[in-house]
Amino acid sequence: FKKFSDAAFSTPRRLNAGSDAFAPGVAAVGEGFLAGWTEADTVWVRAADGKSFSAPLRLSAHSADQLALAAIDSRSALAVWTETLAEGATCIHAARLELNDAGVSAGRAFPVTDCAAQRHQTQPTLTVGPHGVLVAWQDRSSGTNSVYASLAKDAGQFSAPVQINDTVQKSASYGSGSSAINPVVASSAEGYWLAWLDKRADRAGYKIYSARSRDG
Questions:
Q1: Which terminus of the chain has a smaller tally of CB atoms within 10 A, N or C?
Q2: Minimal CA–CA distance to 186: which of 129, 109, 144?
Q3: Single pTM value for the model
Q4: Averaged pLDDT of the chain
Q5: pLDDT score at 82
């Protein structure tokens, strides 16, 4: 940690409490931060303010990875992650997090969209904007990866997913679909902006494409 007035960063401290950990994520919430990671095949989160850490909190009930966090207001945030279901499908789940005197607590975890219709959801990302929380991810249920997004005005009930990238049919020699992967999303007072890797060209690799939305 480092305050703007400090000349140097504080001594590093270990965030995870158990075995090897991967895929860290962080979000500024109020006067402190929420930090998350993957450990022991599940996702965890804890609050920190530069002086103390709350106890680590496990978010997922099943095997999980790829946690992302975004602040909703000064006392709450939304966490999203990829969770592996019993039948092997991967589905984006979310939970609202609340900061309190005891640290951080989590509401009920729920799928962002229909896990039966999209069985290969991965790489979630999110942002909070003027019309609510926008979550984006990639899914390859159709045989090629596509980028989708869904909006929740109150961080609870998400809209039906909308495909963001174009589906470009390519030749048999160079693949049957226009793969879109690794979305990132940001917001401003005017709306939302989403960017991703797009492999629509017949004889080339991935390029960066983006799309904007005023209403989510």
A1: N
A2: 129
A3: 0.93
A4: 92
A5: 97
Cβ–Cβ < 8 Å for 216, 131: yes
Determine the residue type at 142: S
Q: In sequence order, what E strands does the chain have? A: 21-29, 32-39, 42-48, 57-58, 64-71, 76-84, 90-100, 103-106, 110-111, 121-129, 132-139, 146-152, 162-163, 179-188, 191-199, 207-213
Beta strand 64-71 with 57-58 is unpaired
State the DSSP string of 74-120.
SSEEEEEEEEE-TTS-EEEEEEEEEEETTEEEE---EESS-TTT--B
Q: Which distant-in-sequence residues (6+ apart) come within 8 Å of 191 by Cβ? A: 129, 130, 131, 212, 213, 214, 215, 216
pLDDT at 173: 61
The DSSP 8-state label assigned to residue 153 in this structure reads S
